[in-house]
Specification:
The structure holds two protein chains of two kinds. By secondary structure, chain A is mainly α. Chain A is about 85% helix and about 0% strand. In chain A, helix 2 (about 45-60) crosses helix 4 (about 85-110). The longest helix of chain A is centred in the first third of the chain and has 37 residues, at about 5-40. Chain B has one domain: MetI-like (MetI-like fold, Orthogonal Bundle). Chain B is about 80% helix and about 0% strand. Chain B has helices at about 10, 15-50, 50-65, 70-80, 90-115, 120-125, 130-160, 175-185, 185-215. The longest helix of chain B is centred in the N-terminal third of the chain and has 35 residues, at about 15-50. In chain B, about 40% of the residues are buried. Classes of the chains: A mainly alpha, B mainly alpha. At the A-B interface, helix 2, helix 3, helix 6, helix 7 and helix 8 of A face helix 3, helix 4 and helix 9 of B.
Chain lengths: ~220, ~220
């Protein structure tokens, strides 16, 4: 039987790059989707509101694990070839679209109505109003909670281990099965996640404090 | 797409699904009650306790909030028995959920406690209330009221993340679904049905929380 040594540690550490890659995919995809959802939620179009509202309700009201299973087992039904990479990427993207969309909706609505009215009065189009007036201001408020949400995405990628995607948690399981030293293996796994997430958490709360101080002035 | 959906096998297994749903409800409710109790103690320790205690509570919160629930679950299920503590998947799952919720809820409740104006506490002192009475009636109850929406949405997130405990086969709804799919191979249908059940559970829990608010916290205040 193997014992937990430096090669085993390296094996888990190397898997961290897949966690980071999957997190980036989920974040970039989720940012694009989230922007659409947030714009839909805040638009005056009844249908857009309804669709994005339903999307949020479904993805915030069901477990991420089930969403992962539905994509993983559902894609073959639709006749699509799928591997854990694609399934995890798609499910995490959809999930973060819903959560980021809801966060950003709040940020867009926090911009005083006068701003949109002024843009109207200048007869700016919807696109220009959003692009030049609302979104730049909303982005400033959105920065801190978005960084905070990145931590949730990184933690969420651990669920991809359950469908066999070889990221940190899965690597930990594999090493644990070979060494039977769960205490040290899962401490290392938790430690790597902590090293990834904690700096982001600190950054998010620092940004939040600075923003609160700026608003108090 | 030439796939025929067959929900027959799924609906035929309704007693199993019902049992799984009940297990998920029971597990979540127990975790909510115990996690809230843990969080209240930690929030008190963090706002009023001695410095070393504050440090320990902070370390606990940061450690839990910056690692995935699945890893915490594996830690409790695989690593604790290695330390000589033998327990079932169900107990390990419940413990992981309580510890996890405790960390998030502590931060939420602490924010509520810090929002209580000093004058309110001084008013309690002036009325000659005892320390624990002040904490319970003057600080905790208005604090819970102030942060109620954040707390209850954390509760619902906990209920949803309880699906993860199926990874150690803790008999919850998702475990039932996983067993069913290995018997019937109708995985897509099963997970659709189970996702709908979770959605209904989330709606039911938020209705329950609104009811609790109306019954016990709906008194007028300054805000």
């Amino acid at each position: 039987m193997r014992t937990f040594g430096f090669p085993e540690f390296l094996f888990i550490l190397e898997a961290a790059k897949w966690t980071v890659a999957l997190s980036l995919i989920a974040f970039i995809g989720g940012a694009l989707g989230g922007l659409l959802v947030a714009l839909g939620r805040t638009s005056e179009h009844r249908l857009a509101q309804l669709l994005s509202g339903g999307f949020i309700q479904i993805f915030q009201g069901t477990p991420l694990l089930l969403q992962l299973f539905l994509v993983f087992f559902g894609a073959p039904v639709l006749g699509l070839e799928i591997n854990p990479w694609v399934a995890a990427g798609v499910a995490l993207t959809l999930n973060s679209s819903a959560f980021l969309g809801e966060i950003w909706r709040g940020c867009i609505q926090a911009i005083p109505a006068g701003q949109a009215e002024a843009a109207h009065a200048l007869s700016l189009s919807y696109f220009s109003r959003m692009r030049f007036v609302i979104l730049p201001q909303a982005m400033k408020i959105a920065l801190a909670p978005t960084v905070g949400y990145l931590v949730q995405i990184i933690k969420g990628t651990s669920l991809a281990a359950i469908i066999g995607f070889a990221e940190i948690t899965r690597a930990g399981q594999i090493i644990n099965n070979a060494t039977f030293q769960p205490l040290i293996v899962f401490s290392v796994v938790a430690g790597i996640y902590f090293a990834l997430c904690w700096p982001l958490s600190l950054l998010a709360s620092r940004m939040e404090r600075r923003q609160a101080a700026a608003l108090a002035r | 797409m030439n796939y025929t959906f067959q929900f027959g096998d799924v609906f035929a297994a309704w007693p199993l699904l019902l049992k799984g749903t009940w297990n998920t409800i029971e597990l979540s409710l127990m975790a909510m009650v115990l996690g809230l109790a843990l969080a209240i103690v930690c929030a008190w320790g963090k706002t009023a306790g001695p410095k070393p205690l504050r440090f320990v509570i902070n370390a606990y919160i940061e450690l839990i909030r910056n690692t995935p629930f699945l890893v915490q679950l594996f830690f409790f299920f695989f690593a604790m028995p290695a330390l000589g503590l033998r327990w079932s998947a169900h107990t390990a799952a419940l413990t992981a959920m309580v510890i996890n919720l405790g960390a998030y809820a502590t931060e939420i409740i602490r924010a509520g406690i810090e929002s209580i104006p000093k004058g309110q506490i001084e008013a309690g002192l002036a009325l000659n209330l005892k320390r624990h009475e002040i904490f319970r009636f003057v600080i905790l109850k208005p604090a819970l009221k102030a942060i109620y929406p954040a707390l209850t949405s954390q509760f619902i997130l906990l209920m949803l993340s309880s699906a993860v405990v199926s990874a150690i086969s803790a008999d919850d709804l998702t475990s039932v679904a996983a067993n069913l799919q290995s018997q019937t191979f109708r995985s897509f249908e099963i997970y659709i049905v189970v996702a709908v059940i979770y959605l209904l559970l989330a709606l039911a829990f938020s209705a329950l929380f609104r009811l609790i608010y109306r019954v016990s916290l709906n008194y007028p205040d300054r805000r």
